[in-house]
Write a structure and sequence with these properties.
Blueprint: H1 2-56, H2 62-135, H3 141-204, H4 213-262, H5 264-275, H6 283-286, H7 300-316
Helix pairs in contact: 1-2, 2-3, 2-4, 2-7, 3-4, 3-5, 4-7
Length: 320
């Protein structure tokens, strides 16, 4: 019970930390957006004030100043359109990534729930088997209760070892996946930064003067959209790969625990045989559950049946 309470406390703490982090990032994004908007407004004001000052000082004709101002705001409108397209594209990809991650997390939680449900079902079937034995057993109830408690305790230990092994494997796998993820994303971001510098250098080299501003803006739009799509595809691929690795590790650990679970019932039978009165009928001990596929004992079919189906379902979430 204390272990479960501690685990629940850790989950609550983790959820609270994630919620606080999300709120902090949201607040930071709002501040950054307001700062960017303020800078743009100030830039427009400075440009207009410089034109007015140049006109008042006689450095520019009023018609020339108006033409420059009109051209400036026309370029700003084109820039706004490019940014709108890029931001809308990024929002769409973020929504798509969020939906995919929710699906992947749900499938992993389903696998975790399946582990819990299977152990609970196995424990229940083990209890039913002991109840069947009691009806025709010559042993005192205290002896049967002792053997049953030992069997249930062994089942709990198997589950605890399974969870400990899963946590150990996942921690090791997490380090490898995070390192690989950071390297791949960092490499892609460096390539993207280099491409943006190359396009930016076109304006510094005077090439934009020979290219219409609208076409140059379209080049930026296409570049930024393509880079967003490329990065989104990489992140989605890494998410799917991580989920598949978690499933693979989980199923491998589960397979290693199946032999331990299946050995509990034969061990309980042997413990009962050791104290079984000589000459007493043993039909109750040898009774088998009539469920199909129960060749490993009166309750092992629940374990086998659950994980036979889990193998197919475990990979359905990633197409693996």
């Amino acid at each position: 019970c204390s272990v479960l309470l501690e685990e629940l406390h850790k989950l609550n703490q983790g959820g609270l930390q994630r919620a606080l982090l999300a709120r902090h990032e949201e607040a930071s994004a709002r501040v950054q957006r307001r700062l960017t908007e303020w800078r743009r407004v100030e830039l427009h004001k400075i440009f207009c004030e410089e034109l007015e000052e140049a006109t008042r000082m006689g450095e520019l004709e009023r018609s020339t100043a108006k033409s420059l101002q009109h051209h400036y705001f026309a370029c700003q409108d084109q820039l706004e359109e490019v940014l709108d397209v890029v931001v809308a594209n990024q929002r769409y990809m973020l929504a798509e990534r969020h939906a995919q991650r929710r699906f992947l997390v749900h499938s992993l939680h389903s696998l975790k729930s399946l582990i819990s449900d299977t152990f609970s079902s196995t424990s229940s079937n083990l209890g039913c088997w002991f109840n069947q034995i009691r009806r025709g057993s010559p042993l005192p109830a205290e002896q049967l209760d002792q053997v049953q408690d030992q069997a249930q305790q062994e089942l709990l230990l198997v589950r605890q070892r399974l969870e400990d092994k899963l946590n150990q494997e996942r921690r090791a796998m997490h380090l490898v996946l995070v390192k690989k993820r950071r390297e791949l994303i960092s490499d892609m971001l460096q390539i993207h930064s280099q491409r943006r510098r190359e396009l930016s250098d076109m304006s510094k080299d005077g090439l934009v003067g020979r290219v219409e501003v609208g076409q140059h803006m379209l080049c930026w739009q296409n570049l930024l959209t393509a880079q967003s799509l490329e990065l989104a595809d990489l992140i989605n691929s890494l998410d799917e790969e991580a989920a598949a690795e978690i499933r693979k590790v989980t199923m491998r650990v589960i397979q290693s625990s199946m032999a331990e679970v299946k050995a509990i019932q034969p061990s309980a039978v042997q413990a009962l045989l050791n104290v079984w009165p000589p000459g007493a009928p043993r039909s109750a001990l040898l009774q088998r559950d009539p469920e199909p596929g129960s060749g490993s004992g009166p309750w092992a079919w629940a374990w086998d049946g659950a994980w036979d189906g889990a193998w197919d379902g475990a990979w359905a979430g990633t197409g693996g």
